[in-house]
Amino acid sequence: MNEQEFKKRTKQLALRVIELVEQLPKTRTADILGRQLIRSGTSVGANYRSACRGKSTADVLSKLAIVEEEADETIYWLELLVEAKIVTEIEVAELMKETNEIVAMIVASIKTLRGRRQNVTKLR
Q1: What is the C-alpha separation between 66 and 61, in angstroms, rounded?
Q2: Do residues 6 and 48 touch, judged by C-beta distance below 8 A?
Q3: Do the beta carbons of residue 39 and residue 63 sit within 8 Å?
Q4: How sure is the predictor about 120, in pLDDT bands with cuts at 50, 70 and 90?
Q5: H-helix or E-strand containing 16?
Q6: Domains in the chain, ordered, with CATH?
Q7: Taking Cα atoms as reference points, which of 121, 19, 29, 17 lies closest to residue 80?
């Protein structure tokens, strides 16, 4: 998957999170969890875009670590919504699957970049 496709995928994640939050019941708990979910779910794409503009490998790695954290946090809020019985597991299954896939791809990218950086260091 190339950079543009991944940008699109993370933006779609954000839009799906927004759609889910808009459908949550109007309760205090759902509102609080929804706000947290919106923050982390929309942050994934924003931080990925920032990582794409990194000025060095270290900068890109640092920004990708933030993407990983935000995507993992998104999974956490989705799990809480399910465990608090605000939504069903079925309602968020596809969104959780997508977010887990994004986490896996970011982790793989981080490992690849670290490996390249170590190889460059060994050649010097």
Answers
A1: 9
A2: yes
A3: no
A4: low
A5: helix 3-23
A6: 3-123 (1.20.1440.60)
A7: 29
The candidate with the shortest Cα–Cα distance to 21, out of 35, 11, 10, 9, is: 35
Q: What is the pLDDT of residues 98-112, one digit of tens each?
A: 999 999 999 999 999
Q: Which residue has the tokens 């998957």?
A: 1
Residue 43 to residues 24, 25, 90, Cα–Cα distance (Å): 20, 23, 24
Give pLDDT tens digits for 61-96. 999 999 999 999 999 999 999 999 999 999 999 999
Q: What share of the chain is helix, strand, coil (3-state, %, to 5)?
A: 85, 0, 15
